[in-house]
Amino acid sequence: AVIEEIEEEYETYEDLNEEAKGEIYRKFLSLMDAGICFNLPFPVLCRKERKVDIIFAFNAAADVKDDYWSLAGMEKYAEKHQIPFPSITGPNINSSSISIFDSHPNYPDVPVVIYLPIIPAQGLAFNPLKHLSGFCNTGNTCYTASQFDSLAGMTRD
């Protein structure tokens, strides 16, 4: 929620002066999906005051094989906001079960990003893509113990 007078006077939250920002913090609890811009919550994690060294990013998007835009989106966001973030390069990023990004030509100290798209691996009995309209749907927030074990099992050896 945002105070109506502030909304009328300023176009975005970034345009607010420190006093107005403080007023919002004192009066409101603002919540949002941390991955709303590009499906992964990197902006929240990469705030300078957090001093994050390693980020494990599990991408369970329904379209994970075509979801390069999530990583590319953060890379562009980091550039725009001068946030140290590794360059996102490499072949088959979303068809590999793990990708590691740990360098950037302009920033010596970037967090290591370990990217794990949840894709059906060879040899696994469980395939989440077969359950997208069921319990693997993005909007689902309740899981049985068996469903949870099936999903968690994809992150294990």
Report the radius of gyration as a whole number of Å. 19 Å
- Estimate the strand proportion: 5-15%
Which structural class do you get from the secondary structure elements? alpha+beta
Uncertain spans, ≥5 residues at pLDDT below 50? 1-7
Strand order of the largest sheet: 1-3-2
Give the terminus-to-terminus CA distance: 44 Å
Largest sheet: 3 strands, mixed
Enumerate how many helices there are, as a single number: 5
Structure summary:
By secondary structure, the protein is of the alpha+beta class. The protein has helices spanning 4-9, 18-27, 42-45, 68-80, 145-152, and strands at 54-59, 99-101, 112-117.
How would you portray this structure in words?
It contains five helices and three strands, in the order H-H-H-E-H-E-E-H. It has helices at 4-9, 18-27, 42-45, 68-80, 145-152; strands at 54-59, 99-101, 112-117. It has a three-stranded mixed sheet, with no helix packed on it. It is globular.
